[in-house]
Design a protein that fits this description.
The structure is a single chain. The protein is 70% helix and 1% strand. By secondary structure, the chain is mainly alpha-helical. The longest helix is centred in the first third of the chain and has 33 residues.
Length: 286
């Protein structure tokens, strides 16, 4: 979920699930095409189609990271607050915006304000660098598994197929999102801000390459289940809000934008709710 919904993701994943889900919903319909024939042609289509899909996925994922990162920062700090000398998210928020001028002056300079904003975006570079690839692989894997489980394009696939395709389609992607999440959480939990390359170097020196995959088992479970419930909720909400979608020509472009946005928001909330306890465990392990 890198996620990242899951995934975000972000990943997996950010707790601002509704906001990120809206962007990913529009991206999903863009990348997978409208009708069943269009989706199949998109996966096997021209180079231009693939480039457009990758750009759309990268933009949607990047916006999701930028919007959700401050909330994700506070979430991670709260989740690990009693594991080490890390103050809670509420304390961080207060301390980060507290004025420090001489003589009681509370007006911070622009440089200080930028540094304080930078605090909330610690660890955002790794997800930003991988989000385009992750989105493309997620949707391509989902569609490949769905076509394997439900080859008849003339009838709507059962919702259980969407759940299985969401789970199965993200298996390979976890090999990319796990190191990304590990690096992000290490940067976010650091009492002193460290860069991405320095963080990677520290992990590899002390734990080897395997250190980048610490917590992989829980990450795999979280990503698969979160993605499965996200795709199921997205499809179910679209069918509920626009019944003709399931009964007619399966063309997502015919669904009004506001209904697709609502479906994406609902899917994001359902996806995060289904795996949040596992997300706490993952943050504490990583």
């Amino acid at each position: 979920m890198a996620q990242v919904v899951p995934g975000a993701g972000q990943g997996s994943a950010h707790p601002s699930a509704g906001l990120c889900g809206v962007g990913q919903a529009a991206c999903r319909d863009t990348m997978l095409g409208g009708s069943e024939e269009g989706r199949a042609a998109n996966v096997l289509g021209t180079r231009r189609d693939k480039v457009c899909a990758a750009v759309a996925g990268g933009m949607a994922g990047g916006v999701g990271v930028l919007v959700g990162q401050p909330f994700d920062m506070l979430k991670v700090r709260l989740q690990i607050a009693n594991l080490q000398n890390v103050s809670s998210g509420a304390d961080n928020l207060s301390e980060s915006w507290r004025g420090t001028g001489a003589g009681g002056d509370q007006q911070a300079s622009l440089a200080k304000v930028l540094r304080r904003i930078q605090f909330f975006y610690r660890g955002s570079l790794a997800p930003l660098l991988t989000t385009g690839l992750v989105q493309s692989l997620n949707f391509s894997g989902f569609e490949a598994v769905k076509r394997t489980l439900h080859a008849d394009s003339s009838t709507p696939a059962p919702l259980r197929v969407f759940w299985a395709a969401g789970c199965g389609g993200t298996l390979f992607v976890t090999l990319i999102t796990c190191p990304s999440q590990r690096i992000k959480i290490q940067q976010q939990s650091s009492s002193k801000g460290i860069g991405m390359l320095q963080c990677v170097s520290n992990i590899v020196k002390t734990q080897g390459i395997a250190g980048l995959y610490k917590g992989y088992a829980i990450h795999l479970i979280l990503e698969c289940f979160g993605r499965g419930w996200y795709m199921t909720a997205y499809e179910a909400t679209k069918r509920y809000l626009y019944p003709n979608f399931a009964e007619g020509g399966r063309d997502s472009s015919n669904i009004p934008l506001h209904k697709r946005m609502a479906a994406g928001a609902c899917a994001g909330v359902v996806g995060w709710t289904s795996i949040y306890p596992l997300d706490v465990v993952r943050s504490r392990i990583m």
